[in-house]
Specification:
This protein is an alpha/beta fold and 344 residues long. The protein has two domains: 201 residues, Rossmann fold; 120 residues. It contains ten helices and 18 strands. The chain is elongated, with a radius of gyration of 23 Å.
């Protein structure tokens, strides 16, 4: 056991083994605890307690269960750091009768199950304890369940009747929470977390969604949707909410940009770009164009062989002295150069 500082938490915390690696960041733990506010909650795979201690802030009573005694000791130490004092820690197998009988008054069962450290394709059936087993063992206690799952999994790979909530922090996909029973609010949702606020987008009936026209080249402004929105498959819902003329440009097989001649603001945009030019895909011509601007850095935002990346980027940036950054997207055989309005 060691006490260390981590950007995941506002205080140094106790950890052991891979506890810190898999611990829920404080910003996520606070949000999720608020959503699962209840009287009594059982966290049946609490690890070092990163999520559990914030459940304690929102609930009258919390059970923290884990099969690993060393991690449970860390959780107890971390509980003392935050001093909520309403967590009962229990060591043991969460699927055993001995454990189940100690949490029969729980309103909600939460589980952040272990998953293989290396797995090519994330699947719910590789989680331990498995979701079906947890549902079966605790079905006589409550019908309110929440599970953490690998956020890389797309909604269609999750075959439970649940809300699939994708969470992003600082523009990066961070967590996926599955809400079952009465906790389910919709089929899919995306949550963008900020330090003191959150923004949530929910799935709608497909018949209510606008058709997003796909065009060949971007307009004056381009918008990169937050990865939680993309992963949840909520681009249509985002356009519906914004009520603005938006079209879509396909950058490559995985990336799409929304685009418009109108500058639009939304917390569900990771980046907002303004078009500054279009040139053929030729390093000399790109460099020549940038020489007449205040650009000093050119970020390549299209697929390129890793071993060629810096060679091409150095050619593009040769003799550039400006203080701004350009983002380069390749569409067909042309390069579109953008300035990011969110960071300029």
């Amino acid at each position: 056991m060691e006490k260390i500082s981590s950007p995941k938490f506002s205080k140094p915390i106790y950890t052991c083994g891979d506890g810190l690696r898999f611990a829920t960041p404080e910003i996520v733990a606070r949000y999720r605890a608020g959503r699962l506010h209840t009287s009594i909650l059982a966290d049946i795979s609490c690890g070092i307690g990163g999520q559990t201690i914030f459940f304690a802030r929102e609930c009258q009573k919390v059970y923290g269960v884990d099969i690993a005694g060393d991690k449970l000791q860390c959780a107890q130490k971390n509980d003392s750091l935050y001093n909520f004092g309403n967590i009962t820690f229990i060591e043991g197998n969460a699927l055993s009768t001995q454990i189940v009988e100690q949490v029969t008054d729980a309103d909600i069962i939460f589980s952040d199950p272990a998953r293989p450290a290396a797995e090519t394709v994330r699947q719910t059936d590789s989680l331990r304890p498995g979701i079906p087993m947890v549902l079966d063992v605790y079905k006589d206690i409550t019908d309110k369940f929440a599970f953490e799952a690998p956020p890389q999994m797309p909604p269609e790979r999750i075959d439970f009747d649940c809300e699939r909530e994708y969470i992003s922090v600082d523009g990066k996909l961070n967590r996926l929470t599955l809400y079952l029973g009465p906790l389910k609010q919709c089929e899919r949702s995306a949550v963008v977390l900020e330090e003191t606020a959150f923004h949530k987008l929910e799935s709608e009936d497909k018949s209510q969604l606008p058709e997003i026209a796909e065009i060949d080249e971007p307009k004056t402004y381009a918008f990169e949707p937050d990865p939680a929105v993309v992963k949840a498959g909520l681009l249509g819902e985002l356009v519906l909410e914004l009520k603005q003329p938006l079209e879509m440009v396909q950058i490559d097989a995985k990336r799409k940009l929304l685009t418009s001649d109108i500058l639009i603001d939304s917390p569900f945009f990771k980046n907002t770009f303004q078009l500054i030019g279009k040139v053929p895909y030729d390093c000399r011509q790109i460099n020549s164009f940038l020489q007449g601007t205040d650009i000093g850095i050119a970020v390549i935002r299209f697929n390129i062989a890793p071993e060629k990346y810096w060679d091409i980027r150095n050619k593009i940036e040769k003799d550039l002295t400006g203080g701004k950054t350009a983002h380069l997207f390749k569409i067909s055989r042309s390069i579109y150069l953008f300035e990011n309005l969110r960071t300029s």
